[in-house]
Amino acid sequence: MKKLSILVVVVMLLLTAGAANAAVIFEDNFDSPTLSPEWLISPGAGSYSLTANPGYLRYTVDAYLTSRTGGSGTTKSLWVTRPLDGDQWVLQAAVTYNLRPSWPTNNRCTYFTVRQPGVDGAWMASMERGIGVDDDNPSGTNTMQFFNSVVNGPRVIFPRSPGPVPPDRWYLQIERNGNQMISRASNDADDSTFEYQWEYTFPAGYLTNNQDFEFYGYGWRGSNNPPGYVDFDFIRVVPEPTTLALLGLGSLALVRRRRG
Ligand SMILES: [Ca+2]
Ligand SMILES: [Ca+2]
Predict the structure, then answer these.
(1) Residue 28 C-alpha to ligand 2 middle, in angstroms?
(2) pLDDT tens digits, residue range 140-164?
(3) 255: CB partners within 8 A, 6+ apart
(4) How many angstroms separate the alpha carbon of residue 144 from the centre of ligand 1?
(5) What is the mean pLDDT of the chain?
(6) How far apart are CA 201 and CA 87, in angstroms?
(7) According to the model, what pLDDT value does residue 13 have?
(8) Which domain holds residue 103?
(9) Which residues contact 117 (CB under 8 A, 6 or more apart)?
(10) What CATH number is attached to the domain comprising 33?
(11) In sequence order, what are the residues at sequence separation of 6 or more whose Cβ sits closer than 8 angstroms to the Cβ of residue 135?
(12) Which pLDDT tens digit goes with each residue over 56-72?
C-alpha cells in the first residue's frame, strides 16, 4: 500500500512537471537574429537589435527629449509590445540594464509594463528603472519604481553614482491572478528569491481579461553619447501557480481513477 502511495505521488509529480513544461504560454530567448512576428513594434525614437549582443534583445534608449507618446516638444519613443490573453499567468524576464550615465547628464528611464489593451489602456503593473536627474526626487537618481495607473508602489533608491552606473542584471516577474497583480524583482543573481515585491488588487470589473505587455524607454536633457540600453535575455509567460496546482490535482484525480 505504501509503495502504491509513493508510486502515485511520483506519477503525480511527473505529470505536474510535464504539465508545467507543456504549459509555457509564451517564450522568447531572443536567439534568432530577427524579431519574432509575435512582437509588435510601435515606431519611434530609440532602436532594438538582436545582433548587437547575440542571444539578447537590446533596446537602446533615445535620451534626447523623448517620451512614451510624444508631444510637449518631445519625440515619441519606440515600444515593443505583445498581446496576452487570460487572467492567470506569470510574466518573467531576465534583463541587464546598461543605462550608464549618472547625474547630471543623460536622464534615462526604461519600463517593463503590463497594461490594458490599447495605446492608453490602464497600466496594470509597471517597473521603471531610471538613471539620472529626477525632477520629482533629487535623491532619486538611480531607482527602481513599482506602480500602476491607480497608485505608486514602492520606489527603491540606490546610491547616487558619481560615475556611470555599471550594468546590473535583474530578474523580473509580473503575476496576474484575477484582479490581483504581483510584481517581483531580484537583483542579487539568485532568481529564486525576490528582494522587492509589491501587490495590488484592482476592484472587481476594473480589468478585462486581455492585456498587452510592453517595454520601452525615454530620456531628457541628455545626449545619446554614450548610448544607454537594456538587454533582455528572455521573456516568457507561464501559468499562474494556483492554476498549476490545480493541474497537479487534476493529475492526481486521474491517477486515482485509473487505480480504482
Ligand atoms: Ca534574489
Ligand atoms: Ca537569451
Answers:
(1) 8
(2) 678 999 999 999 999 998 887 767 7
(3) 8, 11, 12, 15
(4) 15
(5) 87
(6) 13
(7) 54
(8) 25-240
(9) 83, 208, 210, 211, 212
(10) 2.60.120.200
(11) none
(12) 999 999 988 999 999 99
